[in-house]
Amino acid sequence: MAKYVVCKHTLNYDKLVENLNANNIEFKTKDCIKKCSKCRSKILIKKDDDYISAKTIEKLLLKLDLDNN
Questions:
Q1: How many Å apart are CA 61 and CA 56, to the nearest integer?
Q2: What is the pTM of this model?
């Protein structure tokens, strides 16, 4: 099962998905993860019951890398 969940409506969705795939990060996409106010203003993904957000895709990828170590 995918470790991360990405909302289709998150900021810069297409670029985020492209970067996750390029970095071989397993994820699944949902139509909504019920965090609309954050999701539309930041790049947001869900891991288990936690939400990880950042202002840029690069910063989000850094957070995911730190999370994996």
A1: 9
A2: 0.84
